[in-house]
């Protein structure tokens, strides 16, 4: 049955109702509630501006935004999972297209189904802090800790990094935490510490990574003082491949230093702490060191504890010993150590991946000489030396270095536009004869001697004191603040 057309009287009623409705609502001087079209469709046609947010409280808008973000994150993960599943299915179909026997094809199908079942089971499993028991605290920073933990159901040992959410937001560290999580999740390189799980609760972020029982390169340097050129050549070559792997992922490490170069169970190196220093300080921001420099200007020059030799432009042996004694404490602080940071990072004019090669040059200097090239008792003094590096980069006469070693260090520790690229470094005469494709299969100069899978003897745990097995109670975040950590969860499927 056709509907009757409204007559003039009904149109007048609708217009009057609309006008009464508009007078009952608050209007905006810039955005009227309704307006007449420039090209009216009819004398009585009314346009309404859609502003539904005016009818909701701020709490409702916040909840709607939270729901939107969570839905977007959920479907992004679902789509990524489907893409990965289709890729695995494609690999199976490619295998089955090979000239195989029926028995071999059935075996491949059974293997595929079993792995997919395990994958779905892992995806449904929620990882919690209660799934792990703390064995020992092996590292501590300004905003969190690193603990050796054991998973209760499998008995496997991991390194668990914990970060306080409230401190991450307070110190503007969110971007750096996400960068670390992303590069660890994306990487499958043998030169990068592997991430197995990441999860969170109301107060903490958790990164469950592989445990590398050999400690770090800094501990080795403090123990052995200096390395021979052969030993340094091996470790520098492995560092080059590790840094190159990070660059290929599209990241700049920005904090290459001995503390972040770990030694695995076989004695080979892996990089850790991406985008963050040991103290979780944002190293890309030179303002911290500029503030230290301003503080130094206000000090009494007569009380300056760092006396630079006017001839050698370096510290004396007693001061070097003091620097080494304080080195670990500085690594745990919120400021961190600037000893290995490239000068362009402090200038805040932008920088690229070449800043990592400067850091490697500084580490190579320390391996061969026994101390960092610009080491000082105070970070502000180190900062001053780095920005004026042409007048402070000095090779002491008492340490004999080959021409190739010194030339390589100088080729990395120079201005960014003159610095060697990875191809130039790998082709340098110092690495003549290096088999870059087989480094992880060569016997390293040091292999950790372990008593058990939970042996932490290569970590300076005595410097940490007696720390409780349980995490300290800390501030929890509100629901709106917690939205910043959506999408942090990760599970690695082998």
UniProtKB/TrEMBL annotation:
Residues 432-494 form the AGC-kinase C-terminal domain. Its EC number is 2.7.11.1. It catalyses: L-seryl-[protein] + ATP = O-phospho-L-seryl-[protein] + ADP + H(+); L-threonyl-[protein] + ATP = O-phospho-L-threonyl-[protein] + ADP + H(+). Residues 22-32 have a biased composition (Low complexity). One of its GO terms (cellular component) is cytoplasm. GO terms for molecular function: ATP binding; protein serine/threonine kinase activity. Residues 132-431 form the Protein kinase domain. This is non-specific serine/threonine protein kinase. It comes from Piloderma croceum (strain F 1598). The lineage of its organism: Eukaryota, Fungi, Dikarya, Basidiomycota, Agaricomycotina.
């Amino acid at each position: 049955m056709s509907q009757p057309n409204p007559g003039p009287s009904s149109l007048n009623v609708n217009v009057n109702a609309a006008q009464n409705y508009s007078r009952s609502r608050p209007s905006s001087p810039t955005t009227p509630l309704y307006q007449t079209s420039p090209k009216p469709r009819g004398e009585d046609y009314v346009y309404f501006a859609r502003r539904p947010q005016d009818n909701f409280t701020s709490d409702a808008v916040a909840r709607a935004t939270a729901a939107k973000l969570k839905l977007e994150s959920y479907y992004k993960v679902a789509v990524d999972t489907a893409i990965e599943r289709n890729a695995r299915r494609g690999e199976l179909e490619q295998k089955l297209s090979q000239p195989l026997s029926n028995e071999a094809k059935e075996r491949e199908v059974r293997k595929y189904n079993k792995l997919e079942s395990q994958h779905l089971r892992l995806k449904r499993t929620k990882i919690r802090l209660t799934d792990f028991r703390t064995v020992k605290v092996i590292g501590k920073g300004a905003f969190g800790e690193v603990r050796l933990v054991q998973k209760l159901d499998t008995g496997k040992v991991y390194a668990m990094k914990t970060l306080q959410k409230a401190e991450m937001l307070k110190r503007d560290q969110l971007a750096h935490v996400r960068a670390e999580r992303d590069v660890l999740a994306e990487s499958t390189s043998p030169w990068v510490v592997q991430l197995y799980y990441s999860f969170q609760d109301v107060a903490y972020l958790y990164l469950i990574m592989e445990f590398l029982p050999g400690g770090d390169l800094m501990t080795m340097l403090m123990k052995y003082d200096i390395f021979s050129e052969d030993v340094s050549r091996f470790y520098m070559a492995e560092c080059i491949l590790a840094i190159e792997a990070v660059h290929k992922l599209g990241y700049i490490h920005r904090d290459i230093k001995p503390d972040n170069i770990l030694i695995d169970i076989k004695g080979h190196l892996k990089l850790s702490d991406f985008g963050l220093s040991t103290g979780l300080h944002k190293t890309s921001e030179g303002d911290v060191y500029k503030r230290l420099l301003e503080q130094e200007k206000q000090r009494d020059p007569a009380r300056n504890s760092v006396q630079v030799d006017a001839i050698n432009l370096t510290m004396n042996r007693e001061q070097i010993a003091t620097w080494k004694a304080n080195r670990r404490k500085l690594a745990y602080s919120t400021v961190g150590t600037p000893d290995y940071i490239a000068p362009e990072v402090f200038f805040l004019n932008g920088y690229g991946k070449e800043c990592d090669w400067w850091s490697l040059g500084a580490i190579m200097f320390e391996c061969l000489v026994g101390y960092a090239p610009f080491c000082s008792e105070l970070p502000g003094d180190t900062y001053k030396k780095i920005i004026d590096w042409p007048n402070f980069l000095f090779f002491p006469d008492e340490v004999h270095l080959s021409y190739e070693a010194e030339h390589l260090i100088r080729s990395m520790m120079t201005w960014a536009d003159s610095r060697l690229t990875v191809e130039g470094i790998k082709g340098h005469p110092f690495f003549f004869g290096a088999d870059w494709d087989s480094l992880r299969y060569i016997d390293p100069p040091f292999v950790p001697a372990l008593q058990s899978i939970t042996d932490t003897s290569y970590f300076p745990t005595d410097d940490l004191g007696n720390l409780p097995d349980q995490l300290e109670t800390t501030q929890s975040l509100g629901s709106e603040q917690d939205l910043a950590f959506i999408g942090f969860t990760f599970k690695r499927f082998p």
